């Protein structure tokens, strides 16, 4: 924010030393007379009318720009309105719901609807299934937006193309930025709710002559497939020899759709690098997992960032028990499905997948499709393209394909980085290249000398992402309202490091997923304490220790 004095005005990027010298001790929403502006240049997606967004802290109007009207943007908007702010939500698409507007036909909620709901907005009785379809999820978010009158605060078809921090400019100067159709929008705080699973697909890199350019068939990312309407998607895959690179949720879902369309005549091949602990049916395991993993007793068995000596001792002493429970669950999962036969037994323990949110539910009848041969799985650490298809480790003959789908995930960090205009801030927001985006309380990004004016919601995941985004939104509303005492920057950095080390301890090489599932209650305890609410939400000692924690436990955390 205050770092970026003059960046828009003169077009040059100041050096860090210059920025620090110029930075001013502005506290958001304090009675500062310093004009600090946030500029978000934004483009109307459809009409190509350019406009931009600027905010003046001096104006003291409690205006907040939220980018994205997916689940996270909606819940952030709801709480900010409730706390008396004036949020404006900029949404690139023409409706709410984010990624649920662009899913494969077969996609349904993996979490049970009981887990995946907002604190004060239950699912309607018309949603009978435990795992509603993507259309039902979309309806649920639309009803939420209607119920809390969020729609008037959303500007649809408005893609924010960049954000910049500026300061001290006069109104005249700001008006001059509204050139060539650019508009300037004012906001005092920016909330990024732009999602992790869209926008920047992760595409593997290949040496020259070994990439998609030499292949005669079609190459697509699963994101592009999900963006197709159902009829076009069905036409695309019908009667084709398909190879799917990647065996995470989108890879398995895509393969299942191909198998449904083409049967054994044109089997779909999945190239798997690492197997993960997928569940056969989350409805059954959801209940058990709640008691095994989502209660305070389960969290006693793992180390938690910033824990006391006593808690650390407990976690160390109880590590064998945690290991034993993990083995029990792994055995049950192996017993329930013939994973061994199809090479789908992971080399790592289940706690690693749970603490990185790298687990999911198999598509319906997935193992039947493996058995009948409409889906094949091949293990390979690397592959390259040739004219007829792809060549995998240890095989001479190409795997002949008409379409190769990359189900290889997304570059969430890149998406966050690219939304900032200044290269300086682009690098700053990401942090060290070996690390995750450094976020205090998993959502707040500070500047060099003060709490900043940006927050990321929907970036770190938990057992249920509605709950995870809702808690962060509540915290944000309290923070902006001045109810949260922020530590100094040194303490924030220390805290972020503690969480990152913990993720590395349990998540291993997958720590970058930023999942807080294995110590989610501990994390929410910190948020509750910040908001000056009692973190112990259950009635009675045994309930507190053994009952699973969920959204219902956090009712009443609002101030109003
Ligand atoms: C297939 C699939 C299934 C899932 N199932 C579950 C589940 O069962 N349980 C669970 O807890 N989680 C699940 N998730 C995780 C999911 O990410 C969250 O549940 C949640 O829907 C994400 O919401 P979001 O608002 O954070 O992001 P998104 O839904 O991605 O929304 C981001 C919004 O920001 C907008 N946007 C982005 N950039 C800009 C810009 N520059 N300007 C303007 N607008 C912009 C986008 O258009 C979009 O509307 C699933 C994810 C996927 C991909």
From TrEMBL:
Its EC number is 1.-.-.-. It comes from the Eukaryota. InterPro entries: FAD/NAD-bd_sf, Flavin_mOase, Flavin_mOase-like, FMO-like. It holds the Pfam family FMO-like. GO terms for molecular function: flavin adenine dinucleotide binding; N,N-dimethylaniline monooxygenase activity; NADP binding. Its cofactor is FAD. Keywords: FAD, Flavoprotein, Monooxygenase, NADP, Oxidoreductase. The keyword NADP applies. Belongs to the FMO family. This is Flavin-containing monooxygenase. It comes from Psophocarpus tetragonolobus (Winged bean). The lineage of its organism: Eukaryota, Viridiplantae, Streptophyta, Embryophyta, Tracheophyta.
């Amino acid at each position: 924010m205050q770092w970026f004095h003059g960046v828009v005005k003169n077009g040059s990027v100041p050096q860090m030393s210059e920025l620090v010298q110029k930075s001013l001790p502005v506290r958001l929403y304090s009675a500062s007379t310093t004009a600090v502006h946030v500029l978000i240049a934004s483009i109307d997606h459809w009409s190509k009318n350019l406009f931009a967004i600027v905010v003046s802290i001096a104006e003291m109007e409690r205006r907040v720009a939220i980018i994205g009207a997916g689940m996270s943007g909606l819940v952030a908007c709801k709480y900010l309105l409730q706390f008396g702010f004036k949020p404006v939500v900029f949404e690139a698409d023409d409706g709410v719901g984010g990624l649920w507007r662009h899913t494969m036909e077969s996609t349904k909620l993996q979490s049970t609807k009981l887990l995946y709901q907002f604190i004060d907005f239950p699912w309607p009785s018309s949603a009978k299934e435990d795992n509603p379809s993507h259309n039902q999820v979309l309806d649920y978010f639309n009803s939420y937006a209607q119920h809390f009158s969020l729609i008037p605060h959303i500007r649809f078809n408005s893609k924010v193309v960049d954000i910049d921090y500026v300061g001290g400019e006069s109104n005249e100067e700001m008006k001059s930025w509204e050139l060539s159709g650019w508009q300037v929008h004012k906001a005092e705080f920016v909330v990024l709710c732009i999602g992790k699973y869209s926008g920047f697909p992760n595409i593997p890199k290949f040496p020259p002559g070994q990439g998609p350019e030499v292949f005669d068939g079609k190459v697509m990312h699963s994101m592009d497939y999900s963006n197709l309407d159902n009829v076009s998607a069905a036409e695309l895959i019908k009667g084709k020899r398909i190879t799917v690179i990647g065996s995470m949720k989108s890879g398995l879902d895509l393969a299942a759709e191909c198998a449904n369309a083409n049967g054994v005549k044109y089997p779909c091949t999945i190239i798997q690098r690492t197997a993960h602990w997928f569940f056969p049916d989350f409805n059954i395991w959801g209940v058990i997992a709640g008691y095994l993993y989502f209660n305070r007793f389960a969290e006693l068995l793992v180390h938690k960032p910033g824990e006391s000596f006593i808690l650390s001792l407990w976690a160390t002493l109880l590590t064998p028990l945690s290991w034993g429970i993990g083995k029990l669950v792994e055995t049950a999962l192996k017993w329930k499905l013939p994973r061994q036969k199809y090479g789908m037994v992971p080399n790592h323990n289940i706690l690693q997948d749970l603490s990185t949110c790298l687990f999911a539910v198999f598509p319906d009848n997935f193992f039947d499709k493996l058995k009948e041969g409409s889906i094949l799985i091949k293990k390979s650490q690397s592959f390259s393209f040739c004219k007829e298809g792809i060549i995998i480790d240890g095989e001479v003959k190409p795997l002949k394909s008409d379409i190769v789908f990359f189900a290889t995930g997304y570059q969430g960090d890149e998406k966050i980085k690219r939304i900032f205009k200044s290269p300086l801030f682009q690098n700053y927001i990401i942090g060290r290249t070996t690390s995750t985006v450094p976020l205090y309380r998993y959502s707040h990004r500070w500047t060099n000398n003060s709490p900043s004016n940006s927050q990321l919601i929907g970036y770190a995941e938990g057992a249920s992402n509605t709950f995870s985004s809702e808690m962060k939104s509540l915290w944000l509303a309290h923070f902006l309202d001045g109810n949260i005492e922020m530590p100094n920057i040194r303490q924030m950095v220390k805290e972020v490091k503690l969480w990152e080390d913990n993720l590395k301890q349990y998540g291993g090489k997958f720590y970058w997923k930023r999942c807080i599932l294995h110590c989610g209650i501990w994390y929410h305890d910190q948020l509750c304490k910040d908001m000056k609410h009692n973190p112990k939400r259950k009635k009675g000692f045994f309930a507190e220790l053994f009952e699973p924690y969920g959204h219902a436990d956090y009712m009443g955390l609002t101030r109003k």
